[in-house]
Design a protein that fits this description.
Helix content: 40-55%
Order of helices and strands: HHHHHHH
Number of strands: 0
Number of helices: 7
Strand content: under 5%
Distance between the termini: 20 Å
Shape: globular
Structural class: mainly alpha
Length: 135
């Protein structure tokens, strides 16, 4: 797994026309703005635990909807949507359950996109990219 380097990851993702085209629709933007980044990132952690963490997730490659929650959009934009994309883009191998460090990395990637592209604001003042923040 690559170390989390926000600027390098962002530049790399923006080289993909598919990844770079993602934007939140009005409903998802309102949801993000209303719920706030900390709660949305807790949803991200839950989705990762339920949909990605297993060594062989059910319906891998199709388990993340394209819309319906800001996290789903961010997952596709950051290539954290399935184990194949995690391996290709982030060096996280398939066939092995995700460890806590890998889960934290995925949440950080999602947070990066939600802040930079989704306009999320972290009103708590905590460093959202700190893996020890308790998500």
């Amino acid at each position: 797994m690559m170390p989390f380097q926000p600027d390098a990851l962002w530049r790399r993702l923006q080289t993909s026309p598919f990844r770079a085209r993602f934007r939140l629709n009005a409903k998802d933007q309102t949801y993000l703005d209303g719920k706030g980044l900390p709660l949305i990132l807790s949803h991200a952690r839950d989705f990762i635990d339920r949909r990605l963490a297993a060594a062989h997730p059910k319906n891998d490659g199709k388990q993340t909807p394209m819309r319906g929650h800001p996290v789903f959009v961010a997952q596709h934009a950051t290539a954290t949507c399935c184990r194949g994309c995690l391996e290709k883009w982030h060096g996280i191998p398939q066939g092995v359950a995700l460890d806590e460090q890998q889960k934290d990395y995925i949440v950080q990637a999602i947070a990066l996109w939600l802040v930079r592209r989704g306009g999320a604001r972290n009103l708590s003042g905590a460093n959202i990219f700190d893996p020890d923040r308790g998500l």
